[in-house]
Design a protein that fits this description.
Layout: E1 3-8, H1 16-24, H2 27-32, E2 33-39, H3 41-50, E3 57-60, E4 73-78, H4 94-112, E5 118-121, H5 126-131, H6 139-147, E6 153-158, E7 161-165, H7 172-178, H8 181-197, E8 205-208, H9 223-237, E9 242-246, H10 248-256, E10 262-265, H11 268-279, E11 280-283, E12 288-292, E13 295-299, E14 305-308, H12 325-340
Parallel strand pairs: 1-2, 1-5, 2-4, 3-4, 5-14, 7-10, 8-9, 8-10
Antiparallel strand pairs: 6-7, 6-13, 11-12, 13-14
Helix pairs in contact: 4-6, 8-9
């Protein structure tokens, strides 16, 4: 049976509504799953009125079981937060931040109640969300809090390259302190389980070093000797197929070439930069992004969460130029995880 995928609209002032409608307009989406949008009908109707060529209608439902899940119809849970007559697109606002948070909260509740099989999130704006009184660093922390999860991590994926992180939204100084044996071992275990949930029977895991050249046997730091390498050895003792620590300056090229199924990165930018170098392509002549690809997945949760790996792009909102590829990739990952979990 096709899986029900709950998709948030994202901050309504950004490109989330646009890429959602573009994705829902494709028949292929309905061949793979039962997509359910969670957002505001006022925002959806605003864009549908501007783009009648989509030929989409809205079916408002109060629960996933009421959905029609037929191409040409958007099944929508309408939270009724946005007053479209007073709403401003392309700007940070408390209303937009609150709406984005409430959409996420709703899909989490539906997933925990097992009314949907997986969740997919469109981008929210952290400034807007915090201005609305929801004090989280991002989606990952919302999911961890609302599901009561202590051990979790972010995974980014694009093509052959998958990366999980020991730490994310903290200072670089704090990131170094968080690279402990216990945390690295937890992330290795989570990475192994995630790959198996994607259908990879014997995942090949690589663990990056924290310091240049993995510390050169202590010359540039001892984190590898005292924390990271012992975690790798402990994981091997559990039967996990893992190598490390390995120099980060060459590791990601090897993983992208197929040598490894997933990389454990020590901090936010160590993992994000190689992923976005591959997935984000800027066209200098046109002054616009030629491609914005990649998927963000939160691992270790009791529910499935995949997301686009880009922001709200307020500067593009309403221009109808945003690409839906990252959203489609996130939905594909959510389906795969739901089918194998």
């Amino acid at each position: 049976m096709k899986k029900i995928i709950g998709i948030t609209l994202g901050d309504p002032a950004g490109i989330g509504p646009e890429i959602s409608l573009k994705a829902f307009a494709k028949a292929e989406l309905y061949e793979r799953c039962k997509p359910l949008l969670v957002g505001d009908r006022s925002v959806v109707d605003y864009y549908l009125a501007k783009h009648p060529e989509l030929n989409l209608k809205v079916n408002v439902v109060t629960s996933p079981k009421e959905g029609l899940y037929q191409h040409g119809t958007i099944d929508l849970i309408d939270l009724g937060i946005v007053d479209i007559s007073a709403f401003k697109f392309g700007q940070v606002s408390e209303v937009g931040g609150d709406a984005a948070f409430q959409y996420v909260k709703k899909v989490i509740e539906l997933a925990l109640a097992k009314e949907i099989d997986a969740t997919v999130t469109n981008p929210l704006n952290k400034e807007a969300m915090n201005a609305a009184g929801h004090h989280y660093a991002g989606h990952t922390e919302i999911y961890a809090d609302l599901t009561g999860t202590d051990k979790y991590t972010m995974m980014l994926a694009d093509g052959n390259l998958r990366v999980v992180h020991v730490s994310t939204h903290v200072s670089l100084r704090e990131a170094c302190d968080r690279a402990t044996k216990e945390r690295v071992l937890d992330v290795i275990r989570i990475a192994d389980k995630a790959c198996k949930n994607l259908g990879i029977k014997n995942p090949r895991i690589a663990v990056a070093g924290l310091n240049p050249h993995c510390g050169e046997n202590g010359l540039f730091g001892r984190e590898e000797i005292e924390q990271i390498d012992p975690a790798v050895e402990a994981a091997k003792a559990e039967g996990i197929n893992v190598e490390g620590s390995l120099p980060a300056d060459t590791l990601f090229s090897k993983a992208n070439g197929g040598m490894y199924d997933i990389v454990v990165a020590m901090y936010h930018d160590q993992g994000h930069i190689p992923l976005k170098l591959l997935g984000f392509v800027y066209d200098q002549e046109k002054g616009a992004w030629k491609a914005v690809q990649g998927v963000n997945i939160t691992l270790g949760l009791p529910i499935i969460r995949a997301s686009v790996d880009h922001g709200t792009a307020f500067d593009q909102a309403g221009n109808w130029t945003a690409s839906e590829v990252s959203l489609e990739n996130a939905i594909d990952y959510a389906i795969r995880l739901a089918e194998n979990s």
